[in-house]
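chain below, 473 aa
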Amino acid sequence: MSQDSPPAAAAASWQHRQDQAHHCSIFQRGRHRDGTFIRIFVPDAARQPGAELRVILYLHGFALCLPSFYEQHMLQLAEQGWIVLYPDYQRSSYREEPLGPAPAAGASAPAAPSWGRTTRRLLRRKREDALAEDDLPQELARASDEAELASALPALQVKDLRRVLLPWLLIQLVLAVIGWFRRSYARNLGQLIGTVLLSLAYAPKHWLANAAVLAEQAWRDLAREPQYQHWPSQPPAVYGFGHSLGGLLSLSLPALPALIGPAAASPWEPQVILACDPATSTEMGIPGFAIALLKLFGSPFTAEPLRIQDTGPCLSQPVVILHGLADTLVPPQQWDPQGSDGAYAAIHSHEKALFFASSNPQHNPPLLAFHNQAVTSTKYYDDDLFRSFGGVKHGANAYNTAWIWPALTALFHDRVPPAELLNNLPCRPPFNVVDAPPPAPRQRWRWWLVFALTLVAALVWWLAWGMAFTASA
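prediction:
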């Protein structure tokens, strides 16, 4: 039976639990709200001097900041001897999950920050003023007794948060309209975006830098623990795994010095990278009306997006991309080797491969090759959201156990060349796999819907602004 240590007295202290079932220790520290959270899975074998140290930097999808979304996979990796580092590179209002079993759906729902009061306060401040701790909603403020961990996220100015909060008011109006038809979906989508709203005040390149800094700090500090003091004399072999937005960030790690500066060079540049349903741009996978409104106000998130076309030329490591043909958030055609946008061609590596998985409705249970193939649980949110936002997952399925997980082992442990991956799996997956997607279907109605919703939101905003101006006159 696992035994939990007492709760940490400060954010800089490690929380720890021994997981005897998976032969590993689990460490955790930091806060989601500060952008300093990280969880680490360490196999028991890593305590032995001379043992090979194999590390996976595991990067999550947009707003999927909690370990419970992927924990089943990370425990499986730790049991196989991998040290897994899971940093939350975004700032969010998620509460920290305990180190016990994954919580039930809605057990620790994110707080709803009072952004209305914050917006009114910031509108009275000078744009170039530094953002103070007191400017943030109470749910995101740091407690006075918490130790402060460093992150790579830069200091914000008032104008940075204004450019997020003003479009957020319009996004909420659009969600209110959607809620007339799909109440649960609109409510959960608003909650999902709202949890990481503060992170949209940063450029995505700073998320990437934060992932590397959190991993480096955590590794250095954990190596001071008595059972791991031999680590500094044994440089680890680092590998990169990412899903969705995290897939794009994993593929962009080698470009970090070019994005931030030479000082940003990190020892956490992976030797091999596996990306599952990766976005080609940080604007992919987020509802179009939200992106349009954030662009309208010059949000830092959309003002300086991260694109594989820009970071791919720095990528020389072996790379494999696993994508689902039923992915609607990042359509597989975005990664078409013959695609006109050149996403795949931008990857400089000479050892790269693309594999597109098909759905298999005859499988028991049926398999849908949707966006969240790599996720092992979406129970945290209502199923109504994830039916549209990437696909529902109540546990690992054959896309995990017969495809993604053995693919990782073949690439990272067995050193199988990317192009030979499919022929070097323990068994053939129970669905078809191809190396190119079919032509994209025409779906012009979606653009008309985005345009109509944006127009309605802008009209309501204009009427509300006019009424407020008339009342003040």
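The longest helix spans residues 444-472. The first strand starts at residue 15 and ends at 19.
thats it, cya
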